[in-house]
Write a structure and sequence with these properties.
The complex is a heterodimer.
Chain A (H helix, E strand, L loop, with lengths): L1 H24 L6 H9 L13 H9 L12 H12 L9 E5 L20 H5 L16 H5 L5 E4 L2 E4 L9 H5 L5 E5 L4 E5 L7 H7 L9 H5 L4 E4 L2 E4 L11 H6 L5 E5 L3 H8 L19 E2 L1
Parallel strand pairs in A: 8-9
Antiparallel strand pairs in A: 1-4, 2-3, 5-8, 6-7
Chain B lengths: L2 H4 L26 E3 L5 E5 L9 E2 L6 E2 L4 E4 L9 E2 L4 E3 L3 E4 L5 E9 L12 H5 L6 H6 L2 H10 L12 H5 L9 E6 L8 H8 L1 H15 L3 E7 L3 H11 L5 E6 L8 H9 L14 E5 H13 L5 E7 L7 E6 L4 H6 L8 E6 L6 E3 L12 E6 L16 H5 L6 H9 L3 H6 L10 H5 L6 H17 L1
Parallel strand pairs in B: 1-15, 10-11, 10-13, 11-12, 14-18
Antiparallel strand pairs in B: 2-9, 3-5, 4-7, 5-6, 7-9, 8-9, 14-15, 16-17, 16-18
Helix pairs in contact in B: 4-7, 6-7, 6-8, 7-8, 7-10, 13-16
The chains are: A alpha+beta, B alpha/beta.
Chain lengths: 296, 460
């Protein structure tokens, strides 16, 4: 009995000694800032910064591999906190928020088929027969279902985003099988967006959509620095856009009305909206009134 | 004599599971192949095959002859040439909807003088498939020349997958092709195009098969025909009787006998590995229509400009087996069959099991379009989808032995890893599961969506 206890005691002492030595010599050095950085992050683990988790991003920031302004959920406040911890300056940061490159409501999309398959975008995307346009929104709301923040609803077969609720996590971008949702830097409250993703020639676009971009390049001629036509489709360069230019003239010029504003409504519309009882879908408050030239 | 024969069981080669949908072939099986009057415009898609689209080589306003190259196969990877199917003037490149819901750039060609030349030259069918195939020509054809002729003619598998045939027949010393399996099953309900081809032009099929055999160095040819086409089997037997190493096998009629992973176990009693190819067993499988096209390409220099399309279903006025220039719109083809009846509801590219619904009838006939099925209201099952009751009928019918309901539900709830564990990628999308499903769950659509998601997540 005593022998056994003695053996255990000796063994325990030896091993604890070994552990002490090992912990001294094999210790992993952790940047003390890393824990602080991680604590400053929102902890949503959304992956939108390009790292699998907030902790990984914090590690990357601490080691200088990633900038401080990549957290879209936290936005500028978090970027400032990270910058303070790291002792660097924040370049101007803008919240990256999703916009939808399709502005056609269900009625504006032509050549509807008698689609009887599964009512999800992912399933409808692999078959023909929903609508003529093979680029645009299918309107079954995979993005709406993917939104963890209740920031999206479907109106007239088109998702609309509540930017008050949206944190820019990018779940909708990943959910869209047609890849028509893009995160753009919101440099102003309202951003002009090409509401079309159709790369076909204008004639073909007209046959499938009432509001599709036909690549006429009127916008590119009016604002050559901002707009370009790539593969029959107008593209806005958001690196060049400052958010302060007045693009209403270009917006009005588009013959197909495929340029749309995303973001906060304009003041006059806000007044208009104040009186409108929100229609609401499935009991959720509905932030917009359609028929206006903005969505969001 | 094997044990099946001894016990008087099922003497015809067969595979496990599968379904027996109503055949509906009687509408067109006894109608000879007709040739569609040359349409005014054809729109030749640059992507009609598996792989990358061809590169356009035709200039607008250029005058082309039938069979002239308009799209050269893309240098990168799998691709195939495309050719003008009628003589005419090239228009500006446009985009056309493809039956599978995608779009492709396409070269429209407007016919020159209406109807002028269509009667002057020999009928297209004779030019492509008819007449005598001289034995001396077959004897002098060398394997590499055959492969080049097949590649130049833009021949792709006409059974549906549209895989470039020259790539399929190309062998390497490590993996030689022992057996050429020519697939004349045509298990898809409604369709009779291959049946008519085998009955009317058996010599073309046999000649093409022999050329393909030469090209790939196979020792034997097995031509499989379902037992619902006795006339075709008899015609082929008569045309191939004198050749050694050429066997006609009659297999039992069952869907999807025409799938290579079903036909090979049925004929050779060997399974194709799930992640492998028939080539792993030393077998190459080509369709009978592909074989006929090979004969035309090698011995007569005919590019792949036409194909036989069965236009059928209760929604079309006069069903036909039509020889159609590739690029003809569905609209034109259906009009060539007297148009649709008043209660026509749905147009399918292909048959009802594997076909795609087409909403835009400007879609062109491509190399892979074996049929156009117009369903009437009475032929469409309008039952609503209900919940899965876990009856397991999809498991009982899946010819590949998969669990379709598990895969479909995994895809539905976004668990691609689970779907892959259940062999999502192995599914051949034959549709047996969805056909049998009492809850009317579109299982194949889920699986197809899952495959697309898988490809997207792999590329990102």
């Amino acid at each position: 009995m005593l022998t056994a206890a003695g053996v255990m005691l000796v063994l325990g002492t030896i091993f604890s000694g070994l552990l002490v030595v090992a912990s001294r010599h094999l210790a992993v050095e952790v940047d003390p800032r890393e824990a602080e950085l991680a604590a400053s992050l929102p902890g949503a683990n959304c992956g939108n910064c390009g790292f699998p988790s907030c902790a990984q991003y914090a590690k990357a920031v601490a080691s200088g591999r990633a900038g401080v302004n990549r957290c879209s959920v936290g936005g500028p406040p978090v970027a400032e906190r990270l910058a303070a911890l790291m002792g660097v300056e924040v370049a101007a940061t803008y919240p990256f928020r999703p916009v939808i490159h399709c502005s056609a409501t269900a009625e504006q999309r032509l050549l509807h088929g008698d689609y009887r398959g599964e009512r999800t975008c992912a399933a409808a995307h692999v078959t023909g027969g929903v609508q003529g346009c093979t680029y645009g929104c299918l309107g079954f709301g995979d993005c709406v279902a993917s939104c963890e923040y209740d920031a999206m609803i479907l109106v007239d077969g088109l998702p609309q985003i509540d930017y008050e609720k949206c944190v820019g996590c990018g779940a909708c971008v990943r959910a869209c099988p047609r890849r028509i949702i893009e995160q753009i830097p919101f440099k102003a409250d309202r951003m002009l967006v090409v509401g079309c993703a159709n790369h076909d020639p204008g004639k073909v676009v007209r046959s499938v959509c009432q509001v599709g971009c036909i690549g006429c390049s009127l916008c590119a001629r009016a604002e050559p620095q901002l707009f370009s036509i790539k593969d029959n489709l107008a593209v806005i360069d958001y690196d060049v856009v400052t958010g302060h230019e007045d693009l209403h003239a270009v917006h009005a010029k588009c013959p197909m009305e495929s340029l749309v504003y995303f973001g906060k409504p304009e003041p006059q519309h806000e007044e208009q909206l104040a009186g409108v009882a929100s229609p609401g879908i499935a009991g959720r408050p509905h932030p917009v009134e359609h028929g206006l030239d903005w969505r969001g | 004599m094997n044990w099946r024969t001894i016990f008087g069981l099922n003497v015809l080669p067969d595979f496990a599971r599968g379904v027996h949908p109503p055949e509906h072939k009687s509408r067109t099986r006894d109608l000879p192949i007709e040739t569609l009057t040359e349409p005014e415009v054809v729109t030749i898609p640059l992507l009609q095959h598996a792989g990358a689209a061809a590169e356009c080589v035709a200039q607008p306003r250029q005058q082309v002859t039938a069979g002239e190259l308009v799209g050269r196969r893309s240098a990168s990877g799998i691709s195939a040439n495309v050719h003008a199917s009628i003589a005419g003037v090239v228009q500006a490149v446009t985009a056309v909807p493809l039956p599978n819901g995608r779009r492709s750039l396409a070269v429209p060609i407007r016919r020159l003088a209406p109807g002028e030349d269509s009667n002057a030259v020999a009928p297209v069918a004779d030019r492509l498939f008819g007449g005598v195939w001289a034995e001396s020509d077959i004897a002098v054809a060398r394997p590499l020349d055959i492969l080049h002729a097949v590649a130049d003619a833009g021949i792709v598998g006409m059974g549906g997958a549209a895989f470039p045939t020259d790539l399929k027949l190309r062998t390497t010393p490590e993996r030689p092709i022992e057996t050429l399996l020519v697939n004349g099953c045509e298990c898809e309900p409604f369709l009779t195009a291959d049946d008519r081809l085998m009955r009317e032009y058996p010599a073309a099929v046999v000649t093409g098969a022999r050329l393909a055999q030469k090209a790939c160095g196979a020792r034997q040819i097995v031509l499989a025909v379902e037992n619902n086409k006795p006339e075709a089997a008899a015609a082929l037997l008569a045309a191939s009787g004198q050749f050694a190493g050429f066997r006609i096998t009659v297999v039992s009629t069952k869907y999807p006998m025409g799938g290579e992973r079903q036909l090979i176990p049925a004929v050779f009693r060997r399974e194709v590995p799930t992640s492998g190819l028939p080539l792993d067993l030393g077998i190459a499988v080509i369709n009978v229509a592909t074989a006929a096209a090979i004969a035309g390409a090698v011995l007569r220099g005919q590019a792949m400009t036409h194909r036989i399309v069965t236009v059928t279903g209760g929604g079309v006025r006069s069903p036909k087996n039509l020889l159609v220039p590739i690029g003809t719109s569905f609209q034109t083809v259906i009009e060539g069959c007297g148009g649709v009846v008043t209660d026509a509801r749905r147009v399918l590219a292909g048959g009802p099991m594997m076909g795609f619904t087409v909403t835009d009838l400007t879609a062109p006939v491509t190399k892979g379009t074996g049929g156009i099925t117009v369903l009437s209201a009475a032929e469409i099952d309008s039952a609503e989808q209900t919940a899965c009751i876990r009856c397991g009928r999809c498991l009982d019918t899946c010819p590949l032995g998969l669990a379709p309901t598990r895969i479909a539900h995994a895809v539905k709830f976004g668990d691609l890893a689970l779907a892959q564990q259940n062999h999502l990628a192995a599914c051949c999308e034959c549709g047996c599961c969805a056909y049998e499903c009492p809850a009317r769950i579109p299982l194949v659509q889920y699986i197809r969506a899952g495959k697309v998601e898988l490809a997207q997540s792999a590329s990102e």
